[in-house]
Amino acid sequence: MKRLVCVYGNHSDLYDRLNDRAKAYAAEKNVDYEWIPVEPFTKKAAIAALKDADAGIIDVQPYDGAIFSQIRDRCKLVIRYGVGFDAVNLADATENGIAVSRTTAANAEAVAEMAFTMIMAAKRQLALNRRVVSSGVWERNVGSEMLGKKVGILGFGNIGRRLAKLFSGWDCRIYAYDPYLSEDQCQAAGAEKADLDTIFRECDAVSVHLPYTKETHHVVNADRLALMKETAVLVCTARGNIVDEEALADALREHRILGAGLDVFAREPLPVDSPLIGLDNLILTPHVSAQTQEALWNMYSKAIDVAAAFFNGEDLGRDLLNPDVKKK
């Protein structure tokens, strides 16, 4: 029986239950599952946990040749618990003959719901109004509704499409930016394909769901923020470096846009001296968009399914992030 080691999570009632369930589910797939949480993360601890595994489930920490070269003798697959894989050096994994996968779509509902929630909260200025109550000096801050408004979605994959479906219930007009999709594909999912400047200029809410790459670094910058309406809001639940945080802080401080919501940051944890801290028109959360009980289990089960398929010699298809590893 092949051995699958999960290094994700921490000892708590929730993760104890999830991993007991994962172990039972894996056994049904003829996979020997073991949970070895690496908390706090160090490369040495990750190597110790994974070197005797046939596959591993990993978190958002950086994985590169320093780890892969030490686990390559037995471990032939690592699965990112989640969707983003910018911290995994795919070239190093390929060089060491290790396939890399992820739990595609497993957290799409959770992240889409968080983006939806942040947009609605920012439009109604909930962060500011919460502080008003705490101050004891009540004032009425006027927000804005989303019914029939325009929503721009950057990155129209599983999460972006789910967000579009949520806003379809508000009779919103959906604009989608995705260089990998045709106009017909966007229309089939209920959106109009649009360029970035059009989205920032015309939409009442912009939600970011792009992967982080060299091309998407600071896609949300001062120039594009300057295009937005004063009543518009921006939300990012993707990766922090897609948004220029200083430019966003300036736009919010000067009230050039109504508000924003961020769940991800260039540095995590967010430094306490960040210009984002203390802004009344900004909602901040600590990278928890995917943290629902349903999404957590979906990611465990998806990771186990991927591992079982890999062990059975099945083609992982689009779930394989470094297809060149097949040549090794």
Verbal overview:
There is one protein chain. By secondary structure, the chain is of the alpha/beta class. Helix content is 36%, strand content 15%. It folds into 2 domains: 2-106 and 291-327, Rossmann fold; 108-284, 3-Layer(aba) Sandwich (Rossmann fold). The chain has helices at 13-28, 43-50, 65-71, 90-95, 108-123, 126-135, 158-168, 183-188, 196-202, 222-225, 245-253, 293-311; strands spanning 2-6, 31-35, 55-58, 77-80, 99-102, 150-154, 173-177, 192-193, 205-208, 233-236, 259-262, 282-284. A 7-stranded parallel sheet has the order 8-7-6-9-10-11-12, with helices on both faces. Strand 6 (150-154), helix 7 (158-168) and strand 7 (173-177) form a beta-alpha-beta unit. Helix 1 (13-28) packs parallel to helix 12 and helix 2 (43-50) packs parallel to helix 3 (65-71). The radius of gyration is 21 Å and the shape is globular. The protein starts with a strand and ends in a 17-residue tail after the last helix.
Number of helices: 12
Distance between the termini: 24 Å
Radius of gyration: 21 Å
Mean pLDDT: 97
- Overall tally of domains: 2
Stretches where pLDDT is under 50 for at least 5 consecutive residues are none
Question: What is the CATH C-level name of the largest domain?
Answer: Alpha Beta
Strand content: 5-15%
**What profile does the largest beta sheet have?**
7 strands, parallel
In helices, the fraction of residues equals 25-40%
What's the order of the H and E elements?
EHEHEHEHEHHEHEHEHEHEHEEH
Please provide the count of β strands. Answer: 12
Structural class label: alpha/beta
Task: Find the CATH superfamily of the largest domain.
Answer: NAD(P)-binding Rossmann-like Domain
Shape: globular
Main sheet: which strands, in order across? 8-7-6-9-10-11-12
Q: According to CATH, what is the topology of the largest domain?
A: Rossmann fold
Q: Architecture of the largest domain, according to CATH?
A: 3-Layer(aba) Sandwich
